[in-house]
Specification:
64% helix; mainly alpha
């Protein structure tokens, strides 16, 4: 037997659930019941504010797009350059432009990893088996 419950959801949570339902192609009611059963979709409120809007957009993506993000890899050239700059930084041999480049690469790497982790977390919440790679 099913019971009817009426409740007021905060707009932000409601919108996240609507986005998830649309991305999954499932009825909103099914997504809400899933959220009650296993907890709400992954939240991005605990990450730095500058990254929150982009992570919030991941809720709207279909699973195939989330899989692409979760499986993405940084280019070998980017990783080698980052390692090179880190080594020069340890040796205190960075020029001002290299310091700015290292900062930019560090921020890009943080954003990249946050996107990957959040996409994997959403996929797991949606019921997919996600392995650490």
């Amino acid at each position: 037997m099913a019971e009817t419950v009426s409740l007021q959801l905060p707009e932000k949570l409601h919108q996240r659930l609507v986005n998830t339902a649309q991305a999954m192609g499932r009825p909103l009611e099914a997504v809400i019941l899933h959220a009650i059963a296993v907890g709400s979709p992954p939240n991005c409120d605990d990450v730095p504010e500058e990254y929150q809007p982009e992570l919030a957009m991941l809720d709207k993506l279909e699973d195939s797009a989330l899989w692409q993000i979760a499986r993405a890899q940084k280019s070998r050239a980017d990783m080698e350059r980052y390692d090179e700059l880190l080594e020069h930084n340890r040796e205190s041999r960075l020029s001002e432009s290299e310091q700015l480049e290292l900062l930019r690469l560090r921020q890009e790497s943080e954003q990249f990893m946050l996107r990957k982790a959040h996409a994997a977390s959403i996929l797991k919440w949606r019921g997919h088996q996600v392995s650490a790679a």
